[in-house]
Amino acid sequence: MSDKNFIVQIFGGTWRLWDFLCRLVINLLITVTVIFILVGIISSHQLQVPSRAALVVDPQGDLVEQYSGDPAQRAINKLLGQKQRQQTRLRDVVAAIERAKNDSRIKALVLETDDLQGGGFLGGAALSDLQDIGQAIQDFKKTGKPVFALGDAYSQSQYYLAAMANTVFIHPQGMVFLHGYGIYQPYFKQALDKLGVEVNIFRVGKYKSAVEPFMLNGMSPDAREDWGQVVGVLWNAYQHDVTAARKLKPNALNNYIDNSATELAAVGGDTARLALNSGLVDKIATEDQMENAVIKVVGESNHSFRQIDFLDYLRATNDDRLHPVSGNAVGIIVASGDIVPGDQPSGTIGGDSTSDLIRKARYDNSIKAVVLRVDSPGGSAFASDLILRQIELTKQAGKPVIVSMGSVAASGGYWISMAGDQIYANPTTLTGSIGIFGMFPTFQKTLAKLGIHTDGVGTTPLSNAFDVTQPMSPTVQKIMQLDIDNGYQEFITKVAHNRHLSVADVNNIGQGRVWSGLEAKKLGLIDKFGNLQDAVAEAAKLAKLGPHYAVRYIEPPLSLTDRLIIAMANSTSSLRLNPAAGLQPAGVFSGTPWYAQMQRMTEVLKVFTDPRGIYAYCFCNIH
After folding, report:
1. CB atoms near residue 517 (< 10 Å)
2. Do 69 and 347 touch, CB atoms closer than 8 A?
3. How far is CA 598 from CA 31, 89, 184, 300, 548, in A?
4. Contact of 59 with 115, CB cutoff 8 Å
5. What three-state secondary structure class fits 597?
């Protein structure tokens, strides 16, 4: 190689290195500049609470314990205006109302419920969740500040919240639609027979009705007995709360429903007038008339009453001096949704991901106690047991674990709850359902209709054990049932150990039977009635934290990019999606129960991924 070529190569290599370093520095400078610009934009839009305003609580879509899916992706969808299922976190609504009751700037509370969906665990607002909000509203009223409910019309869920107000408005074209509680679902046995699908079902517990849609054409007498008492408790609680808040006779709501056709005919079909005559609402008014009533209390701004939305209010009052996030803390872990093996996003309980959060709290020296907030109908027995083990290890490490049940903590949801030092629930929480099942469909008859048959040879009687094109052999069926029997015995034995009951007693109250929180407390399945705040206070007490402690949600960490995206999406209310862009339309008649049931059944299919094919699941589809 000549000296000239050598010099050219040295120079060329040096230049390429210099070029790379220049581009690296420039890219870093651009990135830092963009970050500073974004932070500046976000900081410049600091929300302020008006000196005199109404707090507007306008929940959108479903009330949930936590948002479902990836938080950054939800924020991106929000920024881009893309359709996504509308959700409102229960804890945000409660926190805003509780924080506002002692805020001298907030002079009134306005409830706008038109965009709240209804329908229990299918989506919407379960009674237990509504009661938590209702209690916060009642506490707000004790300050003497007025509460207004402004609504075009009210579904049953929407009306529960409206009934807590001092003054309930309804539009002249509106109505209050009450229907009580029920559980209805499609049954597929006849259709499966026509298609030639043979569903091999293995279960323990005569009340374990989750598999009934695949083995019957209608509800069994045992399931009818079980669910009859559950919906009765819910409806009695709903009536009690609403009639007490509205100062109506105890049978007023039943009379309203039973005599609706006759009474409606008497007022010429005027549904708003019927609601007024029945004492369910206070005033019939147009939108501007409703707003003027609030203006008289808080004044006018931007052609409406002076106001701040509850989410904006939470961000505007997010002062660490008032709400510390450091120091000795109670850690809250939310376990919401179906229980599935592996790592799962928010809104689904992952056997690995939720276990990791509990483990993280156990090794965090600043976390002195843990509250597990459970809102789940269950799912994989294997994943449930992984989570239970982490709770046991956390207790062994000397940290109290308090369980706070939401609207549903049944079957696998109870499995992950049973080891709590104390279990809190509402009287209307659905829990229990201590039972398990397995299910395996085969399609040999379906294929035979098409002239397709399977044949072959294997080395053992189990070579074709789980071939869906062949009937399940008696040997495999026996193995599956023995496995399910063992799983149930394990379930009730662990409940007996953790709840200090005999195995025989647990078996008697198990059998897959669903209990309301009211009955569960009598049976020893839960300890106390109370909400999440009560559970946090109990955890702090057991950890001997005294009156001053922080409360932290233990959640998967977000990257800097994710935090920036979320901050941008939250930086201005103008970036919010129009509620009408949700996947389901709002209003009294948004969809049908049957359609919602089918949609939920489709979602449940994702649960069936347990490695042993054993499930602790409850179809708690009350609406």
Report:
1. 25
2. yes
3. 47, 25, 11, 46, 48
4. yes
5. helix
Identical topology for domains 49-176+281-325+558-587 and 329-548+591-617: yes
395 has catalytic annotation: no
pLDDT of residue 327: 76
Domain boundaries, the chain: 1-44, 49-176+281-325+558-587, 329-548+591-617
Q: How far apart are CA 390 and CA 355, in angstroms?
A: 6
Q: Quote the CA–CA distance of 344 and 505 in Å, as a whole number.
A: 35
At 121 the pLDDT is: 45
Return the H-helix or E-strand segment holding 542: helix 532-542
Question: From the candidates 78, 101, 107, 208, which is the catalytic residue?
Answer: 208
399 annotated active-site: no
Cα gap 468→140, rounded to integer Å: 59
| Residue pLDDT, tens place only, 369-426 | 999 999 999 999 999 999 999 999 999 999 999 999 999 999 999 999 999 999 999 9
| Residue 208: band (very low, low, confident or very high) from pLDDT cuts 50, 70, 90 | confident
**Alpha carbon distance 533, 590 (integer Å):** 32
* pLDDT in the model for residue 590: 41
Q: Which CB contacts under 8 angstroms, 24+ apart, belong to 593-597?
A: 593/119, 593/184, 593/623, 594/184, 594/186, 596/119, 596/122, 596/123, 596/623, 597/122, 597/184, 597/185, 597/186, 597/621
How would DSSP label each residue in 270-322? Answer: -HHHHHHHTTS-SEE--HHHHHHHHHHHH-EETTEE-EEEHHHHHHHT--TTT
- CA neighbours closer than 13 Å in the CB half-sphere of residue 11: 6
Which residue among 384, 411, 417, 433 is the active-site one?
411
User: Is residue 558 helix, strand or coil?
Assistant: coil
Indicate the CATH number for domain 329-548+591-617: 3.90.226.10
Mean pLDDT of 563-585: 45
Radius of gyration for the alpha carbons in the chain, expressed in angstroms and rounded = 28
DSSP class of residue 61?
B
CATH superfamily of 49-176+281-325+558-587: 2-enoyl-CoA Hydratase; Chain A, domain 1 (3.90.226.10)
Residue-wise pLDDT for 342-378, tens only, equals 999 999 999 999 999 999 999 999 999 999 999 999 9
| Tens-digit pLDDT profile for residues 298-321 | 999 999 999 999 999 999 998 544
| Distance of alpha carbon 372 from the chain centroid | 14
Q: Which residues pair with 422 in a beta bridge?
A: 402
- Mean pLDDT across 432-456: 93
Q: Mind spelling out the 3-state secondary structure of 163-210?
A: HCCCEEEECCCCCECCCCCCECCCCCHHHHHHHCCEEEEEEECCCCHH
